[in-house]
Amino acid sequence: MSTIPxxxxxERFHEAWARLLSADHGMAVHxxxxxxxxxxxAALLHRAQQDEPFxxxxxxxxxxxxxxxxxxxxxxxxxxVELLQAQPVGDARGPALTGAFAAGWAAALRERTLREQEAxxxxxxxxxxxxxxxxxASEARFRALFESAxxxxxxxxxxxxxxxxxxxxxxxxxxxxxxxxxxRVGDLVHPEDTPGVWEAYEELISGKREYxxxxxxxxxxxxxxxxxxxxxxxxxxxxxxxxxxxxMLEDITDRxxxxxxxxxxxxxxxxxxxxxxxxxxxxxxKLFEEPEPGARFGLCYVDLDGFKVVNDxxxxxxxxxxxxxVAARLKAALxxxxxxxxxxxxxxxxxxxxxxxxxxEAVAAAKTVLKALAGPVLIGDHKLAVGASVGVxxxxxxxxxxxxxxxxxxxxxxxxxxxxxxxxxxxxxKENARAVSRxxxxxxxxxxxxxxxFFIDYQPLYALADGRLAAVEALVRWRHPQLGVxxxxxxxxTAEETGLIMPxxxxxxxxxxxxxxxxxxxxxxxxxxxxxxxxxxxxRSAALVTDLGxxxxxxxxxxxxxxxxxxxxxxxxxxxxxxxxxxxxxxLGVSLAVDDFGTGWSNLAYLRDLPVSGLKIAGSFxxxxxxxxxxxxTGWRIVSGLVSMAHALGLTVTAEGVETRKxxxxxxxIGCDWAQGWHFGRPxxxxxxxxRITEEPQGRPVGGSSAEG
Length: 709
Ligand code: C2E
Ligand code: MG
Ligand code: MG
Hints:
- By secondary structure, the chain is of the alpha/beta class.
- The strands form four sheets. Strands 13-14-16-17-18-19-20-21 form an eight-stranded mixed beta barrel, surrounded by five helices.
- Residues 704-709 have low confidence and may be disordered.
- Ligand C2E binds next to strand 14, helix 18 and strand 18.
- Ligand C2E is lined by residues 398-399, 459, 475-476, 487-489, 492, 505, 508, 533-535, 565, 595-596, 619, 656-659, 676-678, 683.
């Protein structure tokens, strides 16, 4: 971060600023006033550049003062933004300062526009009353007012027929009078009409409201789009019956374009022109909003090798040019493939593959990245060899979250760097879990429990026969102060390795039993059964039976309503000592279910000897039904076979990972008892479960409401 001596840079900025404001902006300003304005705003901006800590308010105020002095020309804003961007301030502050300035300017302009609109509206209101009188009294006087108005005015009847338009409105539409009168209001609609306009329109002509206002696009006669600020008012006859509508349209196309431009600046990196971090996350989060079942995505996290050396030895200018060149190459190589390239900051870039078809495609993108950066970049007299390392992640959308995916891609990148530069490395869930724990998990976990950083979400399980909320599964999460919310897959293994799973598991049981006891107190029999996961190590510990007995006592929770989920690897043979613990648990009155059945050992013979009463079919069986590489009817035969096998053993069957209504229906017809998955609801806070208990007393139709959240 380099800064130029204060007095020197301040003086130069002041001069450039004065030149900018004195240029011809189509208005006459008194030189004294102008000098004052220049001095005030330059001082504000200078302070915004230099003061510690950074005060964005100062820059915003400078923007607002310009608007107050009628400097509202978008061209001026654009120049001012360019000038500010050329200022040598700390890299972190530059964009924020420019943004604050532009935002202050835009907010002041909007404020002012609103004031003006209000004035126009009042005038229009007066004009309307005037017009009502004029209509009745003097047609001629009204005509004069109508024709001379500077904003577009059109009059229509309540059936939507256009009766008259003034000259300003014809000009706005670029149309001749005969093109407009005799047509209907609906003919002028823009296909991407602003939401809510037509509802407001219906209310107006039926007399339910007096006027409405919207910013709304129209097509001009020549096909161009014109953005307008539209105000429509209702005129009633002497008896108060709606008779006419008067529309006033102000052309705001310039202002609209400016907003678009500011939005572009907010979402694009000023150095490379690529979408920036914010824009990338927005796109990524969109993918997760309502994904198709089985939808996949890919990420290539790219970091240049040795960029710091270039930057430090050849200077920031060269560094900047190198980054621009890299951005251009990445864009040229990857955009044609339909992938999004964004700059995350520094020398980090990311490629997003929406609708990815599989790991191969993501790896191909990573290879394209490396190939694009293979040749040297010529900058001035320097021939710079840039290389990069790429972390590749390719996953089903429903198995992760945006935050976890980016973190995982970043950690994968580190592995690529560690393995030697200039290569790509593919995400590996085990490596990832290990890396996460290496980072911050294991060290922090003991304190985290004391600090209350863990919390529990509950995911509903529905009975397929009658759509009743049958049970909820307690799923633990960790709100990590640096890493954000971590899912159990990211820390449970470490907790098992370090032994922390024992106090953590006890805490989960205490919390969940307390919560479920509370639901019973509030809702009685409508409260669902509680399912809690047991780690292998917990199930193998004799102390568990005593612990659970105490927890049931203190919370007063009915053991008959508690089911513990164990994994197939909990019990390895008929002589296993873990069996003693499991029998001890069943003696307390709780039931057991085998979780994720089908992913482990799946020894059916021993399943018969376990004291379990439920079986949960792993989500991957249902997920595989949508895998284009796998035969769906075989998949269904497997699921159906598992259901009958479990029923033959007298077990209740739950299907996990049910994401679509179609799958829920089919599972119901093959006799599966319960189901859990996105289609029925994600893991949620306890309050949301309470809401479901009260709002769904009759159960929900299994094929009915669709996935949420
Ligand atoms: P699980 O017991 O099989 O829990 C179900 C997991 O599947 C949950 O992941 C849940 O969010 C996810 N899931 C539910 N419906 C769907 C769906 O429709 N599609 C997809 N793709 N996923 C779905 P989560 O919360 O990440 O938990 C992961 C695992 O961590 C759990 O798998 C469980 O084995 C373990 N776990 C969670 N809480 C605890 C705990 O308190 N103690 C122990 N020992 N393990 C826990
Ligand atoms: Mg489970
Ligand atoms: Mg499971």
